[in-house]
Design brief:
The complex is a heterodimer of chains A (485) and B (128). Chain A is an all-alpha fold. Chain A is built from 19 helices and 2 strands. Chain A has one domain. Classes of the chains: A mainly alpha (485), B mainly alpha (128).
Chain lengths: 485, 128
């Protein structure tokens, strides 16, 4: 089915078109937005098709499996493609406003579409080496987006992002080489069958190496240093797109490998993953508690929230994996929304640092409402979306007798509330440090509020009516385990 | 022969990691490139090492038994192209960074994450 590769072909074609139009900025922007909306339509059609008719597969060049490179659009992949397409559209619409938008440069639109093409293909591919290639495509595009501003702090951030991510890439390539040497397979289904036949003492170090590579890319403890070192140098909408996409590619790969392909991997691997998840949650949330720059607070929370998804994967049950999928979808949208809210706060006050701003509740009550909904969703207060994700994870930990894991997850939730309260009290509640301060009079924010409003509506829907999405996630887990839902 | 090759790759990767741990930006990037080449060679070897045997499955056989598997050779070409592109990008990045920061010591490159001056609170982030 051609629909399975459209999430990769459409943004690639748009990237090329935008690169060709780089002398004509207005035309380039139009082509870019048209490409994003087309991608959004394709993603919706893909999700619909997958829900109605099951996994859509396409083997490159009609090679018989497991020899051909297979693109398999299942529920997990297509839902994440839909999130990517939504976030790309929001990012591009945001560019019409003046809220900390990315500075114009001829490479901006090609890189954005390249990033989404890489992410979309990484979500859908069913071939290990192909997955590596798409990881690299997103890495190259994200490096370009980090560096294209050209300021010293951006270059510095790019270097740190590059070195640590490249190290992860090298480990991934080594793991792929060793896995191919041991099993002779690259296709996910064939690899899973071969791994189940192989000696588990041989598979443990190989799968472990692959998991470590994914953990570096997912910014988990102790490999997360690249994320809080680089994200805060990005302009607002790019920051939102990065936080929604980049670590989710690795989380998606982890759900696929540990929840499907290598489900028969030794218990020890999952136990270690659980402890890594706990340390990620705690270290991320403590890092956030120290900071006062909203971007850095939220970036550290990405580490901590990533820990919840890892914990859900480490539980190795259907509910656990489904919770990881639900949490990944929820977190992409909520965290992106919070970064966009921070960009709007920056537009109104001129600062991201909480010590220099205040008084926004009186000046901009609408923005305060957006922040409150998104922040409570992130913390997991019912009836918002984060509650359902955390509820599933904590309940599953307690049911499995892992009381410490569940307890730490609850405790980290309380610390997350502390950080969100800090932003609320400092940015919205306290009076502005300068008594004569007025919000910026001439702002062009209609498109920004439209994008943020759209995201908030989706988040509200996920929170108030989570049943279809949880059912969808459970079906996705069944597909990953090779059953028909 | 496989043990000698493994030892050689191990040495290359170890040398790369040693350089990558250096505080000098350029050394660090060259070390990563070296380690990447070592891992590319590892990928190349994952399809067996054989000489003088074409990768052709004979009429009476159903699998490639003796000759080297050609697929990892195709994979390693892809990996080489990618690592070369990343190396080029990283060298340009390093030159720009060293020129504008005036230092090539990683420990002094802190403009994205400035050192705190206050014992409790992080430094004020400027609006830019």
């Amino acid at each position: 089915m051609i629909l399975a590769v459209l999430p990769l072909l459409v943004p690639l074609a748009t990237a090329l078109l935008c690169a060709a139009l780089q002398g004509m900025p207005r035309l380039q922007r139009g082509a870019s937005i048209a490409g994003a909306i087309l991608l959004l339509f394709c993603a919706v059609a893909l999700v619909r098709q997958v829900v109605l008719h099951g996994v859509l597969t396409l083997a490159a060049g009609n090679w018989p499996l497991p020899f051909g490179i297979e693109i398999a659009a299942d529920r997990l992949g297509s839902a994440l493609v839909l999130v990517a397409a939504t976030m790309l559209t929001v990012t591009l619409v945001w560019q019409f406003s003046d809220a900390d938008n990315a500075p114009f440069s001829p490479v901006l639109h090609p890189l954005l579409h390249g990033l989404v093409a890489g992410a979309g293909a990484a979500f859908l591919t069913a071939d290990l080496f192909n997955l590596y290639v798409w990881f690299e495509v997103t890495l190259i595009c994200s490096l370009g987006l980090l560096a294209h501003g050209g300021a010293l702090r951006q270059l510095d951030a790019t270097l740190k992002y590059f070195v640590l991510n490249l190290f992860g890439t090298l480990l991934m390539l080594a793991a792929i080489a060793l896995l191919y040497g041991a099993t002779g397979q690259l296709n996910f289904t064939a690899l899973g069958e071969a791994a189940a036949r192989n000696d588990s003492s041989l598979m443990l170090p190989l799968v472990g190496l692959l998991v470590i590579a994914f953990l570096i890319k997912a910014a988990s403890f102790p490999f997360f240093a690249w994320l809080p070192a680089s994200y805060h140098t990005l302009p607002g909408p790019l920051l939102a797109l990065f936080s929604a996409l980049l670590s989710k590619i690795a989380i998606c790969a982890l759900i696929r490998t540990l929840g499907g392909i290598f489900l028969s991997a030794p218990e020890a691997l999952f136990a270690v993953l659980g402890w890594i998840a706990l340390l990620s949650m705690v270290s991320g949330v403590l890092g956030a508690a120290y900071h006062w720059d909203m971007r850095r607070i939220l970036a550290f929370h990405s580490v901590s929230q990533g820990g919840y998804m890892l914990l859900a994967i480490a539980l190795t049950s259907r509910t656990g994996d489904a919770a990881a999928i639900f949490f990944a979808l929820h977190h992409s949208l909520v965290k992106a929304g919070l970064f966009l809210t921070a960009a709007l706060i920056f537009r109104h006050t001129g600062h991201y640092d909480l010590r220099r701003i205040g008084g926004l509740y009186a000046a901009k009550p609408g923005l305060a409402a957006f922040f409150l909904i998104l922040a409570l969703s992130l913390v997991g207060i019912p009836p918002f979306s984060g509650f359902w994700g955390k509820y599933l994870i904590v309940r599953e930990s307690f049911l499995q007798g892992e009381f410490l894991w569940g307890g730490v997850a609850l405790f980290v939730g309380a610390l997350t509330l502390y950080s969100m309260l800090k932003i609320w009290l400092e940015a919205f509640w306290k009076p502005h440090p300068d008594r004569n301060w007025q919000p910026h009079p001439n702002t062009r924010l209609l498109s920004a509020y439209t994008g943020l409003g759209g995201l908030t509506l989706i988040v509200l829907w996920m929170g108030l009516y989570p049943d279809p999405l949880i059912g969808f996630a459970l079906d996705a887990v069944a597909t990953l385990r090779g059953e028909s839902p | 022969m496989i043990w000698a090759v493994a030892l050689a790759f191990g040495t290359v990767i170890a040398a790369g990691i040693y350089l990558a741990l250096s505080r000098d930006v350029l050394r660090c990037l060259i070390g990563l490139a070296l380690a990447g080449n070592g891992i590319n060679l590892l990928l190349f070897t994952s399809g067996r090492l054989r000489t003088n045997k074409p990768p052709i499955i004979g009429k009476s056989e159903s699998a490639l038994l003796e000759a080297a598997n050609a697929l990892p050779q195709a994979l390693v070409l892809t990996a080489i192209v990618i690592s070369f592109a990343l190396l080029c990008f990283s060298l340009v990045l390093a030159v720009r960074l060293i020129k504008s920061a005036g230092s090539e010591d990683v420990a002094s490159l802190r403009s994205a994450e400035p050192f705190p001056t206050d014992p409790v609170k992080p430094p004020l982030e400027d609006a830019s």
